[in-house]
Amino acid sequence: QVQLVESGGGLVQAGGSLRLSCAVSGRTFSSYVMGWFRQAPGKERKFVAAINYSGSITNYADSVKGRFTISRDNAKKTVYLQMISLKPEDTAVYYCHRYAGDYWGQGTQVTVSS
After folding, report:
1. Per DSSP, which regions of 1-114 are E strands?
2. CA 12: distance to chain centroid?
3. Structure confidence by residue, pLDDT tens digits, 16-70
4. CA distance between the termini of the chain
5. Which of 7, 64, 76, 89 gives a 20 to 30 Å CA spacing to 111?
């Protein structure tokens, strides 16, 4: 069974940084494209970033380009989202996603105060 468990969220001031982690159970983590999405209160869940199986290709939403970095450690079966220069509009629940099979984590809250 595949499980995704996010961690690393919290409360941070504008301009601050956070690193989210997503630990993935199950076999063959290294074979799958992984992504991060976020959902602000009252809004739809939106794409943030994605990374291919080897980490050689990444893609970002325009709103986070230059501030967020997605990476992965296949040996640890973990995908990361490094966030810098955080803004109040980054406040959301952040979800880890495995595209194959459409698996989601439970989410981790990120709150950026102004």
Report:
1. 4-7, 10-13, 18-24, 34-39, 46-51, 58-60, 68-73, 78-83, 92-98, 103-104, 108-113
2. 17
3. 999 999 999 988 888 899 999 999 999 999 999 999 999 999 999 999 999 999 9
4. 40
5. 76
Pairing mode of beta strands 108-113, 10-13: parallel
d(CA 69, CA 76): 18
Amino acid symbol at 83 = M
**Whether the Cβ atoms of residue 12 and residue 111 lie closer than 8 Å to each other:** yes
The per-residue pLDDT for range 68-85, each reduced to its tens digit, is 999 999 999 999 999 999
Q: 45, 111 in Cβ contact below 8 A?
A: no
* CA 72 to each of CA 22, 33, 47, 49, 63: distance values in angstroms, whole numbers, following the listed order: 9, 10, 17, 12, 21
